[in-house]
Design a protein that fits this description.
The complex is a heterodimer of chains A (165) and B (120).
Chain A (H helix, E strand, L loop, with lengths): L2 H17 L5 H24 L4 H27 L3 H29 L10 H5 L16 H5 L18
Helix pairs in contact in A: 1-2, 1-3, 3-4
Chain B lengths: L9 H15 L4 E2 L1 H12 L7 H14 L2 E5 L3 H6 L5 E5 L1 H26 L3
Antiparallel strand pairs in B: 1-3, 2-3
Helix pairs in contact in B: 1-2, 1-5
The chains are: A mainly alpha (165), B mainly alpha (120).
């Protein structure tokens, strides 16, 4: 297991422990157990498919980040908090998720920007790649155009003709 | 997202449809990751449903009586050296909801196609 993957697992487990803190032991154990099982299944499945540990780690962290608002709402539902508190927590969670995804993508790109085969690109991870058709270079102009010298300034237009009534 | 009365949220409908698809393939019971992978494959997205979104929706569906869950026998994960799975089953109510939501999706797709074909 690489350091990145171990770190991702720790972050996901730590966040689950944080938002389930001071809950009933049964509910807490159930959520921790579900997340642990999901992490294991995902790791094994991705490994079988030949994904690199870094890619698995990024995927885990993105799944964590996008689920933070729901985690907070779920927690709020468990303790029945006031709607205003829930709304504030939701905004805070959404903002934290955006900042986290931005930080993660910029850090990973800065770490390894040139490895295209195993590119750690969040956008590539999110959306299936489509082939990009490059525009072919324009053909050279015909010889007569290339030789012709166009005047830079056009001559002034002729004065309008007077029409006798 | 606000829930329309008598309607499932998109994530809940997706879970019910994925569970029905898994049942069609002979898997009566499924765990969280399995459902996330099935939804991801059906929608052709690379990023699977977030942990928070998925497990909150599963809990809601269980409270609504569309899913039933149980923890697998601890001897099995101990033997296979892995964490225990929480196994979900689609109830009859859930199956009806899955059918209704796939019917709705088909009708919406037909409406969209008709609108696209209509002259401007």
């Amino acid at each position: 297991m690489t350091i990145t993957l171990a770190l991702a697992l720790r972050i996901v487990r730590a966040w689950t422990r944080i938002y389930t803190a001071r809950m009933s032991p049964a509910a807490r154990a159930a959520r921790l157990g579900e997340i642990d099982s999901d992490l294991w299944e995902m790791h094994e499945d991705a490994r079988r498919r030949g994904a690199s540990p870094t890619r698995i780690a990024v995927h885990m962290l993105l799944r964590l980040a996008f689920g933070v608002p729901d985690d907070l709402v779920w927690r709020a539902e468990q303790v029945r908090l006031r709607p205003r508190v829930v709304r504030s927590a939701l905004w805070a969670g959404a903002a934290a998720s955006v900042v986290f995804v931005w930080w993660l993508s910029s850090t990973l790109q800065a770490l390894d920007p040139y490895r295209s085969a195993d590119a750690i690109n969040v956008v590539r991870l999110l959306y299936p790649m489509r082939p990009v058709h490059s525009v072919p270079p324009l053909p050279p102009p015909p010889a007569e155009f290339a030789r012709a010298k166009f005047p830079r300034r056009l001559p002034p237009p002729p004065p309008p003709k007077r029409v006798r009534k | 997202m606000r829930r329309k009365p008598g309607r499932l949220l998109p994530i809940e409908a997706a879970i019910c449809e994925a569970a029905a698809a898994l049942r069609g393939r002979g898997a009566d019971q499924f765990h969280g990751y399995e459902i996330a992978r099935t939804i991801g494959a059906a929608e052709n997205v690379r990023l699977l449903t977030a942990y928070g979104t998925l497990y909150r929706a599963l809990a809601r569906l269980e409270n609504m009586g569309l899913l039933r869950s149980r923890w697998e026998d601890p001897a099995i994960p101990a033997r296979e050296n892995r964490p225990g799975r929480r196994l979900y089953t689609l109830t009859a109510l859930g199956e009806a909801a899955a059918e209704a939501s796939s019917r709705d999706a088909e009708a919406a797709a037909r409406r969209r196609a008709r609108r696209r074909l209509a002259p401007a």
